[in-house]
Amino acid sequence: MDMSNYLVLSALLFSIGAATVLLRRNAIIVFMGIELMLNASNLAFVTFARMHGDLSGQVIAFFVMVVAAAEVVVGLAIIVSIFRTRRSASVDDVNLLKN
Amino acid sequence: MTSGAEAVLFWCLAPLMVIAALGLLFARKAVHATLCVVFVMVCLAVMYVALEAPFLGIVQIVVYTGAVMMLFLFVIMLVGVDASDSLVETIRGQRLVGWLLGIGLGAVLVGVILRVSFPAGIGLEEANADTNPVAIARVLFGDFVFNLEVVGVLLITAALAALTLTHKQRLTPRVGQKERADARVASGESLVPLPAPGVYAQRNAMDVPALDPQGRPIEASVSRVLRVRGQERQAPLDAQIAHLSGQGPRGVGSGPSHDVDRTDGPGEPTADPSTPGAADTTPPRTTEEES
Amino acid sequence: MDTSVIDSAWLLVVVPLVGAGILLLAGRRADAWGHWLGVLASAATFVLGAVYLLTLLGWDAADRVVDVHVGRWFDAGSLVVDVGLRVDPLSLTFVLLVSFVGTLIHLYSVAYMEHDADRRRFFAYLNLFVAAMLLLVLADSYLLLFVGWEGVGLASYLLIGFWNHVPANATAAKKAFIVNRVADVGMIVALMLMFSSFGAVDFASVFAGAETTDTGRLTAIALMLLVAACGKSAQFPLQSWLGDAMAGPTPVSALIHAATMVTAGVYLVVRSGPVFTLAPDALLVTAVVGAVTLVFGAVVGCAKDDIKKTLAASTMSQIGYMMLAAGLGPIGYAFAIFHLLTHGFFKAGMFLGAGSVMHGMSDDVSMRRFGGLSAVMKVTWVTFGLGWLAILGIPPFSGFWSKDKIIESAFAADGGHGWQPWVFGLVALVGAGITAFYMSRLFFMTFHGQRRWVESDDGSGLPVRHPHESPALMTVPMVVLAVGSAALGGLLMVGGAFASWLEPVTGHVEHHEPVLPVPVIMVLTLLLVLGGAVLAWRQYGASTVPVEPPVGSVLTRAARADLYQDVVNENLVMRPGQYLTRSLVYADKKVVDGGFMGAAGALGLLGEAVKKVQNGYVRSYAAMMLAGFGVLVVVVLLVWN
């Protein structure tokens, strides 16, 4: 079975997610771009699991999901606390490390 | 593809997914972007099922779409649902770099994938002999048990982190019910809550304004057109509660202002709040035009 | 022979050094008795020196050179230097001269510096000087000699600038030190040459090695030693500091710049006799230098109105005589030292007399405001007069014996052949005449003629002075020195005693016949001397001396300006040096500092430029990360086949 289609899709989704991170200013949308990237890699893992007949790929994808969930929790908490003090959700405003 | 069905499924969903992903990239409002991502995730779940990973597919829907994306939506509500990103780029050259890198990365990855010759797919029929969840459980609690434990710790830590990060230190003392009641007694206000708007109304016609808990008419309750035409009528008021108007610290100088031509309006304050006690000297609302 | 007594010779250096240390460290507490401690230390050195002299006299002539080993100084690989003292006739002569004249001057200073609050410090420096000078003459290696050399230079600096609240004094002290430093370069180069030629710098090794080294090298060493000697002894061309050094207190001028320190150069040349003798060219240069300085000093002395500066010019001239004698070779070594001895007595005596005159004339130094003091300051007049007669070379005073011998030797130069005897002899002869003239001028202007001062103001415009004889503590040393000026020469000349005394050091010399017969030389000398004295009497004793110095001839004006020595020094040496240092400072600031700062600045600019990459935006950083990742992927792909 030819599963390179899924891999191509995964690659495309990954690139779009990366572009989102670079081009959007709203922190939450940037975060969603990251989620998209994670999901794309999950798709690749699952595809390879099927390709090799080994369930380790699915297990790894499962772990990725768990970690992504944890990451979302912490990341959103940070965004919320930043928003509370700065009243802005723009990623460009967090530039105190400039120069 | 094993079967044409899978191919059809793929070719139906894949373009839609790509379009949704691009929707994330280009959407102006955050909620729209979130919805696009939700769509992508649901489609991914379907694909997982098609890829002989049903367990993962359900987990994707439950955890990812159901929990993570909803969390995103909640945070968007917290942050400001109508905050829209301006599309003007502030960092010089970022747009060019972003497009270049995005397209370049995509091109490289896709090119690599297309040029690689993959071995013949084995499929997961054998692995899924005892149903997929059972097989995954075997692998998970067998080879990956340590990872599992660590990830559990990670989840606990993440939850704690979220608690800590969003914890707000109280800057002012907490004004609870007891404190509010004490303040009310100390200021000499009425201890009972005021009546809801409309309690003192005796009419419910369209051109008669509703009365607020202090008995003053609420201007916005009458259509603006009627007001402009001067077809608004006065609201009658019970004498017992007439004294409520103009009393208390909230009466003077606050409340909605009325039309200028209603000079004998029932106790409403004039537009000039600098005349102290003017509200006190306005005649009580005894005028009754209504027979 | 038993050298146990001589083995304590290091005391000669240590005692005055300890004295100086105590006086400096004790502070104001010692103000009441400090000066007596200084006198005591100096007297102790004289007693020790006398003891050693008596010991040495008890031995045979050949045994009289004793090397006292004190200890190892340092061991630097191939150069091993010990601290040792050489006690022999030459060094003992100097020891006695320094300690005797030194002690007398210490006594004199007790009274002279009575009203000075810093008297204790003065005695500390005097003791320091005595210690350094004795180290200089007793050292048994050139390196240790150099230590004493520098020590006397230091003492001279400290004492010239003793009243350092007057800027002119401080400048004079610096000038002396700097000119001496220039000369010290010669000493250092000589030391280096000695080390490279002989592998050691002590006298024994050098003199032994000199026998087998080639003449060129020896000439170089000798010439470098001569440079050093010129600086210390104020010989041409390094003579410019001596006149200015008169800014110091008069006892200092007497001790250091007349009797002892300035003679250290002559000591060095005579001590290095074995080297000089084997380098005839260096000897010739020495003699020429001596002759030139002789005339230089005499000419300058004729025009000076400052009594101390005249005496300084005279010192310069007399040391020129000594250098001339030393430059004549082995025949002149002994006479150079002899003249040095007698000169020490009469010059120191005259300086103390000048101090006595100044003391009575309210520290005025200009002879144009003296005159007729013979009636008022009798003892000073007599003692000064004896010194005057000695320096003129009138028999039977000491100067006659020593100077005459030098003139004779000058006429016997180069074995009596060629131009040398004539040139040097005539120069010495004429120099004697000029010496007579200006010394008589000094004497008559000061003590004779009409008084150019008044006892009380009578509206004549002349300064009011109350000259009186000096206290005993000042006059007794003057008397002692006058006795020495008168008698010492004759005493030492009996039977050629002094020459044979010095023989262990200078070696036995064959006497050469001068080109003119000895009686002729003697008569000529006396005639010139008397002529000079009479001329001076006519001009300064008999006729009126103007209080304001007259314009004078070109030569007079040149002589007043020290024959333009400062102008020459400044333009030849100082200005180019200043330009060089200024340009070096500029180069250092602009090139070296500029280079460093420029590099640092460039680095800073680079940092500033790179800093702009860190713009604080997360998205830029994300872009950079993704770009890096992309590059990585491409590289891996390219490599992975």
From TrEMBL, chain A:
List the record's Gene Ontology CC terms alphabetically. NADH dehydrogenase complex; plasma membrane
Q: Which InterPro entries match?
A: NADH_UbQ_OxRdtase_chain4L/K, NUOK/Mnh_C1-like
At the top level, the lineage of the source is: Bacteria
Q: Set out the biological process GO terms recorded for this chain's protein.
A: ATP synthesis coupled electron transport
Q: Does the keyword RNA-binding apply?
A: no
Keywords of this protein's UniProt record, alphabetized? Cell membrane, Membrane, NAD, Oxidoreductase, Quinone, Translocase, Transmembrane, Transmembrane helix, Transport
Write down the EC number.
Answer: 7.1.1.-
Q: Which reaction does it catalyse?
A: a quinone + NADH + 5 H(+)(in) = a quinol + NAD(+) + 4 H(+)(out)
Q: Sorted alphabetically, which Pfam families does this protein's record hold?
A: Oxidored_q2 (PF00420)
**Which GO molecular function entries does the Swiss-Prot or TrEMBL record give?**
NADH dehydrogenase (quinone) (non-electrogenic) activity; quinone binding
EC class, as a word, reads translocase
Role: NDH-1 shuttles electrons from NADH, via FMN and iron-sulfur (Fe-S) centers, to quinones in the respiratory chain. The immediate electron acceptor for the enzyme in this species is believed to be a menaquinone. Couples the redox reaction to proton translocation (for every two electrons transferred, four hydrogen ions are translocated across the cytoplasmic membrane), and thus conserves the redox energy in a proton gradient.
UniProt lists the family membership as follows: Belongs to the complex I subunit 4L family.
Matching PANTHER family: NADH DEHYDROGENASE SUBUNIT 4L-RELATED, NADH-UBIQUINONE OXIDOREDUCTASE SUBUNIT ND4L
Q: How the protein assembles, per its UniProt entry?
A: NDH-1 is composed of 14 different subunits. Subunits NuoA, H, J, K, L, M, N constitute the membrane sector of the complex.
Question: What is the recorded name of this protein?
Answer: NADH-quinone oxidoreductase subunit K
Task: Name the species this protein comes from.
Answer: Sanguibacter inulinus
From TrEMBL, chain B:
Record keywords, A-Z: Cell membrane, Membrane, NAD, Oxidoreductase, Quinone, Transmembrane, Transmembrane helix
- Spell out the molecular function terms from Gene Ontology: NADH dehydrogenase (ubiquinone) activity; oxidoreductase activity; quinone binding
Q: Where is this region: Disordered?
A: 242-291
Give the EC class as a word.
translocase
Q: Which reaction does it catalyse?
A: a quinone + NADH + 5 H(+)(in) = a quinol + NAD(+) + 4 H(+)(out)
Question: Which compartments does it reside in?
Answer: Cell membrane
Keyword Oxidoreductase tagged? yes
Describe its membrane topology.
Answer: Multi-pass membrane protein
Q: Might you give the EC number(s) for this enzyme? A: 7.1.1.-
Q: Which spans are transmembrane here?
A: 6-26, 33-51, 57-79, 99-124, 144-165
* CC terms in the record's Gene Ontology section: plasma membrane
Write down the InterPro entries for this protein, in alphabetical order: NADH_UbQ/plastoQ_OxRdtase_su6, Nuo/plastoQ_OxRdtase_6_NuoJ
Pfam families reported in the protein's UniProt record = Oxidored_q3 (PF00499)
Q: What is this protein's function?
A: NDH-1 shuttles electrons from NADH, via FMN and iron-sulfur (Fe-S) centers, to quinones in the respiratory chain. Couples the redox reaction to proton translocation (for every two electrons transferred, four hydrogen ions are translocated across the cytoplasmic membrane), and thus conserves the redox energy in a proton gradient.
Q: Which family would the database say this protein is a member of?
A: Belongs to the complex I subunit 6 family.
Q: What is the name of the protein in this document?
A: NADH-quinone oxidoreductase subunit J
Q: What is the organism of origin for this protein?
A: Sanguibacter biliveldensis
